[in-house]
Automatic annotation (TrEMBL):
<feature type="compositionally biased region" description="Polar residues">
    <location>
        <begin position="37"/>
        <end position="58"/>
    </location>
</feature>
<feature type="region of interest" description="Disordered">
    <location>
        <begin position="37"/>
        <end position="59"/>
    </location>
</feature>
<protein>
    <submittedName>
        <fullName>Uncharacterized protein</fullName>
    </submittedName>
</protein>
Amino acid sequence: MEKDRNKILGITLEILYLLTGEDYLVVKKSGEDQISGAQSRAQITTTGPPLSFMSTERSSSDQKIVELTNKIIDLLTGE
C-alpha cells in the first residue's frame, strides 16, 4: 500500500507540473503528527519560475493529465 501511495503522490506532482509549469518538492514532517495519532501530512514547496500557462501546449497537457488521472484511478481501484 505504501508503494501505491508513493506512486499516487508522484503522479499527482506530475499533474501539478502540467497545470502550473512549476516543479514541486515534497517534504515529510517528522514525528509530531504521528504522536497525536493524526495521519502524517506532507508539506509541498514550489521551485522554478512563477506560474505561467502554456496555451500552445494546453491540449497535449490536458490529454496527459487525463492519462495520469486514469493511472491514479487504477491504483486506487486495484486494477
